[in-house]
Design brief:
Layout (H helix, E strand, L loop, with lengths): L7 E7 L27 H7 L10 E6 L3 H7 L8 E4 L5 H15 L4 E6 L3 E2 L2 H17 L4 E6 L10 E11 L2 E10 L4 H10 L2 E10 L1 H11 L3 H11 L5 H8 L8 H6 L5 E6 L3 E2 L6 H6 L7 E9 L5 E12 L4 E5 L4 E5 L6 H10 L7
Parallel strand pairs: 1-2, 1-4, 2-3, 6-10, 12-13, 13-14
Antiparallel strand pairs: 4-9, 5-11, 6-9, 7-8, 7-9, 8-10, 14-15
Helix pairs in contact: 3-6, 3-7, 7-8
């Protein structure tokens, strides 16, 4: 196997529904297609931050079939055939596995970087530098899969963690480690212990690999998935692609790449990322992204907050005025308004579930 490596490719995973950002995020236009906390849609920023290193012609987007048209409009420089719509959601293992197969048909020696479409990353030049480090590390260890770990700045309980093992080498002035273990989302006490101990990093769902190495890992750990991925990849760019994709993809196991592959892989690498990162997981993220004003409130759009603090207020249509309340989330759109406690931001998805149960799909 060549260790020199081919070109760099990116895989942008964009299939999520963004239920925690209801009512701004809807089934027809989810979070990744919206400007949340930044001034352009999240998926556009994900693509453009890569462009100096990985131009659009070497980017793939794996999304839901219902979003293919919208993604192609937002990313017109990505070749249309490289925006692929999953007929059903099957988590990250089928998604990344398919993308790896498709890139491999173009460049078997490529280095592929896979990432979510809806995260905010600071220090973008430093991020690109670490992509280069990953490429060097995989040139030296082409059979490995590399996971990037975010250096934590707080004892977060909402993320899984990655525990570093022994140093395996230094590339581009950065140490690369053996990935010792995945750690499930901890309680606050355990998170504080890991932060104090060091050597633990947030799992941001960022991976780098070579297509052959990924295919070998799937053959070892998800053997039933590989043949289906191969059939889809062989049909790519042909007249029967959509038909074969629709026939094969739903039959694949719904499983994350973490559980399906990475936790079992013998040759997994860890590259720490010393950057500001946010998964924009709920409305509470707006404070981390935009910061609160002098009155302690975070606001978007035409808003008025009187005699209140700790509120997150987003006016996406018209004016929103609140008075005499603290620690609320208030989001107004043309046809729906959300009001909830700020400490229950994660529970917004329950509203989406309740709307579906009550037959109010028109608001989803």
């Amino acid at each position: 196997m060549s260790t020199a490596g081919g070109d760099l490719y990116a895989v942008i995973m964009a299939g999520g529904s963004g239920t925690r950002f209801w009512p701004a995020s809807r089934v027809r236009r989810p979070k990744q297609l919206l400007p949340i906390g930044i001034d352009e849609p999240l998926i556009v920023r994900t693509s453009t931050r890569l462009a100096d290193m990985i131009p659009p012609e070497r980017q793939f987007v794996i999304t839901s079939a219902r979003y293919v048209g919208a993604v192609r409009e937002l990313l017109p420089d990505v070749p249309p055939m490289q925006v692929v719509g999953e007929p059903v959601g099957r988590d990250t293992a089928p998604c990344i596995g398919l993308a790896g197969r498709l890139v491999g048909t173009l460049d078997p020696d490529a280095t592929v970087v896979a990432m979510p479409s809806d995260h905010v990353i600071g220090a973008e030049e430093l991020f690109r530098e670490h992509i280069g480090v990953a490429r060097e590390a995989l040139a030296a260890r082409p059979d490995a899969i590399l996971v990037f770990g975010i250096e934590p700045d707080r004892p977060a309980t909402g993320y899984g963690y990655l525990r570093q093992g022994a140093v395996l080498g230094e590339f581009g002035g950065r140490r690369v480690y053996r990935l010792d273990a995945f750690v499930e989302k901890p309680d606050e006490s355990r998170a504080r212990e890991m932060l104090a101990a060091g050597g633990h990093f947030w799992n941001a769902g960022l991976f780098a690999f070579r297509p052959r190495a990924l295919a070998a890992a799937y053959a070892a750990h998800l053997p039933a998935m590989g043949p289906r991925l191969d059939r889809i990849a062989r049909a790519w760019r042909g007249d029967e692609f959509e038909q074969i994709l629709t026939a094969e993809f739903p039959s694949m196991q719904s499983i994350s790449i973490d559980y399906g592959v990475m936790e079992k892989a013998d040759q997994a690498l860890l590259l720490p990322l010393p950057i500001r990162w946010d998964d924009v997981g709920s409305w509470a993220a707006l404070e981390r992204l935009a910061g609160a004003g002098d009155d302690g409130n975070v606001t978007e759009g035409d808003t008025l907050v009187l005699s209140g603090t700790g509120n997150i207020v987003s006016a996406r249509d018209g004016l929103v005025a609140v008075k005499g309340v603290d620690d609320l989330i208030v989001v107004h759109t043309p046809d729906a308004t959300l009001v909830c406690r700020r400490d229950d931001a994660e529970g917004v998805k329950q509203i989406v579930e309740a709307l579906r149960e009550r037959g109010l799909e028109r608001y989803l």
